[in-house]
């Protein structure tokens, strides 16, 4: 195998893809290296362990959602209806073009009981998702109700991602976004 230079971000992207498709425990450092076109030892120039790659992968996706999706709730140039539509569209764009589903949802089930650092990062991701959506809904609903609706939407989305991957169709997944958009009509 030819040795090539690979950035930390490229390793994270390769690891994320593998973790989503194979699972965390079924992905080895050798698998990650191979996916990135590296020899196994080269990864250790960037990361100390698979757990570090796993945690950094969770943070990488959390940062992406914070910047590109959750931040929509703070935009002053959009109406609440436009915000929720864009929020749903960007969420859909991510999950409809992301093989293997939601890394944070997958790892919440697979490893969060054993790895408290992973668990805290995953909880933060889902809490931030809920808070961002609740912020958009609070102009129409009381604070508590907005949070309950947001929590329901996040749970429905995660379940729909699982079903989409299981059945190979996005029909039911897309229905969840339509439901949340309907809350502001």
Query: What best-fitting shape do the alpha-carbon axes yield?
Result: elongated
Residues in helix, %: 55-70%
Q: Structural class per helix/strand content?
A: mainly alpha
Low-confidence stretches: none
CATH 4th-level superfamily: Tetracycline Repressor, domain 2
The third-level CATH topology is Tetracycline Repressor, domain 2
Largest sheet, if any? none
Q: CATH top level? A: Mainly Alpha
What is the residue-averaged pLDDT?
94
The count of DSSP E runs of length 2 or more, i.e. the number of strands, is: 0
Structure characterization notes:
With 185 residues, the chain is mostly helical. It has one domain (50-182): Tetracycline Repressor, domain 2 (Orthogonal Bundle). The chain contains 9 helices and no strands. It has helices at residues 8-22, 29-35, 40-43, 50-68, 80-96, 103-110, 116-137, 143-167, 171-182. α6 crosses α7 and α7 packs across α8 (143-167). The mean pLDDT is 94.
Keywords:
mainly alpha; 9 helices; 185 residues; Tetracycline Repressor, domain 2; 70% helix
Q: In short, what is this structure?
A:
With 185 residues, the chain is mainly α. 70% of the residues lie in helices and 0% in strands.
């Amino acid at each position: 195998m030819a040795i090539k230079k690979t950035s930390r971000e490229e390793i994270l992207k390769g690891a994320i893809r593998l973790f989503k498709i194979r699972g965390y425990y079924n992905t080895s450092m050798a698998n990650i290296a191979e996916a990135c076109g590296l020899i196994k030892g080269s990864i250790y120039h960037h990361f100390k362990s698979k757990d570090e790659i796993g945690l950094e992968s969770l943070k990488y996706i959390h940062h992406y959602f914070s910047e590109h999706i959750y931040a929509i709730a703070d935009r002053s140039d959009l109406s609440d209806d436009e915000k929720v539509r864009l929020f749903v569209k960007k969420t859909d764009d991510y999950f409809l073009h992301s093989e293997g589903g939601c890394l944070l949802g997958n790892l919440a089930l697979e490893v969060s009981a054993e790895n408290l650092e992973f668990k805290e990062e995953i909880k933060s991701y889902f809490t931030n998702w809920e808070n961002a959506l609740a912020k958009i809904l609070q102009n129409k609903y009381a604070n508590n109700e907005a949070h309950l609706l947001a929590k329901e939407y996040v749970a429905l989305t995660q379940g729909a991602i699982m079903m989409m991957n299981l059945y190979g169709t996005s029909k039911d997944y897309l229905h969840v976004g339509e439901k949340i958009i309907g809350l502001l009509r």
